[in-house]
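seq/struct pair 1
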Amino acid sequence: MTTQHPQPTGAEYPQSVPGGVPAGTPQQGPYLEPGAYLPAAPPVPEKPKGGKVRLIVGIAIAVVLGGLGLFYALSQFDVHGAKVGDCLAQVSENEVKSVQCDSAEAQYTVISIVENQPETTDTTDPCADVAAADASYWEGAPGGNGRVLCLQER
């Protein structure tokens, strides 16, 4: 007994076309030569990682901390706002700072202030005429005029 197989119809198997590619098969692009490489894809730009923001924040923090440090340093030795009756403590041979009068540091009391004076010397000390003055402190820009604080020891 022989079994017969049904003959395929055109719908079941695509027909061949010239060139050997069956009909309905998607066409492929040209093939590369052996040893050839595809061109590299353009680089994808990296997204910023907040570097600029961190830099700006870092600079702002440094400026604020520097300003606070400068303010603290200047306030320790600044007597520009000293008035008659304020107390001072000697920091070094040529430097004083404002202190509270009830502080153990307080060594001098400002008893007189002479404005618009050149840097003083022993012979040009305007506090020499103030009877209770034991010392004087000149403050101002070097080479310019400043003010002389006449001081009495406590």
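seq/struct pair 2
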Amino acid sequence: MADPTSNANSASAVREGSEADRTLVVERVFKAPPETVFAAWTDPEILVQWWGPEGFHTPERSMDVRQGGAWRTVMRNAEGEPHAVSGVYHEITPSRRLVMTWGWEEPDGSRGHETLVELTFEPTEDGTRLKLVQRLFETTEGRDRHNMGWASSLDCLEQFLG
């Protein structure tokens, strides 16, 4: 249930790069109002319809969407392999901001390195500008793997929102 984008060498990686180097920033504009995009991240029935990279589905989820509440999803790839990730909500400002921790579950059931994910939902003329900031990765390689995963996941969200 490890990070689906990891490789065998990542466990032995040491912290590398500056704080800026180990921070991921992704922005995307969706043709939907902030309320709709925010709900896609906070309503479990909506989230499971798009969550995860392309080719994954999310048959398991639990979300206690409140400050201090826990969340957990289990995504499965095309081969059915589980990839569990979980965290705690730190800040919830409806339709504006969502902050949560993020940590993959390792194959032995332990929790891997934890990062902080900050999402802002800004109204635009065309809909909503989503800004995702995730920090601090242990390595720039970890950041880059998440960049690929988020790009694919946000493609799924864009398709879902139409």
